[in-house]
Amino acid sequence: MKDNDIHKLIEQQEKERKAELYAEFEQKHNITAEQPDKRKYAIKIASCAAAAVVIICLIVSLPFIMQNNIKNSTRYCSVNDCIAEDANFTLQEYAANNNLPLLYVDWYDIADEIQTKIFVNKDDREDIIFFQENIINGQNGIIVELYITKENVEVDFISSFEERCGRASTIKDVCVSWNFRNSFGLAVFVYKGYKYYLILEDIADENVITDIIEEMIP
C-alpha cells in the first residue's frame, strides 16, 4: 500500500470517529441538530442588507449633518469679553464696502448726531461680535440705538431685549417682535443672517416702530 493511500485511510477513520463522538455527545446532552431554515436565512440577509443601507446613508449624510449643526450652532458672548471701538464709517458705508446685506436707519442726511461703534473680541480684534449705531433724527428728535449681530450670535445684555418684546408683527414677510410704552420702543427681528435690536426713544406712538422698520427692510 502506498503512503498516500495510508494517509487517506487514516483521515477517513478520523472523520468517522469524530462523527461517532459527536453523535454520542448529542445523545448524551439531548441535543438535536436543527435543519437550516431558509426563511430565517433570507430574513437575516434582508436585515443585513437594510443595515448596510442605513450605514451607507449615515456615512453619506453625516458630514452634511455635522456641517449644518456647526453652521447653526449658537455662539454665546459676554459684553465683558468685547472691546468697543469707534468706527470711522457708518453702517451704510460698511455694508456697501463689504458687500453685506446689513440694514440701517437711513437718517444720515437729516441726523443731528451719528455714532457708530464696533465691538470686537478682546482676544482677537479681527473678530467683530456686534455693531452699534446711534442716530438722532434732526427733524423730529427721535433717537434710535441699533445693535446688529450675526443670527447665531447672542450677546448677554442685548439678547435680553427680546424677552421684553411681547408683541409681534409681520413687515414685508419679516417677523418682528416689539413693545411700546411711554414714548419708548423696543424691536427685534432677523433678516438675511443678521439679527437686529432697536431701542427707540421719544416716539409719539407704536406705529413709529413699525414705520421705521418698514423703511429699513428693502
What's the main sheet like? 8 strands, antiparallel
Strand order of the largest sheet: 2-3-4-5-10-9-8-7
Record field, number of beta strands: 10
Helix content: 25-40%
User: How many whole angstroms does the radius of gyration measure?
Assistant: 37 Å
Strand content: 25-35%
Overall mean pLDDT: 80
SS content category: alpha+beta
Query: Termini separation (Å)?
Result: 103 Å
Order of helices and strands: HHEEHEEEEHEEEEH
Low-confidence stretches: 28-36, 52-71
Explain what the structure shows:
The radius of gyration is 37 Å and the shape is globular. The longest helix is centred in the first third of the chain and has 35 residues, at 38-72. The chain contains five helices and ten strands, in the order ααββαββββαββββα. Mean pLDDT is 80; it is low at 28-36 and 52-71. The protein is an alpha+beta fold and 218 residues long. Strand 4 and strand 5 (143-150) form a beta hairpin. It starts with a helix and ends with a helix. Strands 2-3-4-5-10-9-8-7 form an eight-stranded antiparallel β-sheet. Strands 1-6 form a two-stranded parallel sheet.
